[in-house]
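Helix-turn-helix domain-containing protein: C-alpha cells wanted.
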Amino acid sequence: MMSGIRLSHRQAAQMMCVAPNTLYDWRSRGRREHGVPCGDHGPRWHTYPNGRFWYYEAADVEDYMASHSLTMTRTLPRDEVMA
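Answer:
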C-alpha cells in the first residue's frame, strides 16, 4: 500500500494498472468509485480486452489525485494484471 501518490520517474514512465474498486478510495466523497473518471473529470483511461481492468497514465493520475486530495490504497503491477 502507498500513502498518497508519490511516483518515481520510472513508475511515471510506465502505465499503472488498476482493478476497479481496489485502487482508489475516494475519501473526499466518502465512497468508492471505479478507478478515476475519464474525460473532463480525470486522467485518460482504457480497458483491457477482458473489460475487467483499467490502466492510467501515471503522471496524469499523480496530478489528478494531488489536486483532489485523494489517497491511493492499492496498486497492481501491470505484469500481474496481464497474466
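Residues 9-82 form one domain. Residues 1-5, 7-56 have pLDDT under 50 and may be disordered.

Cheers.
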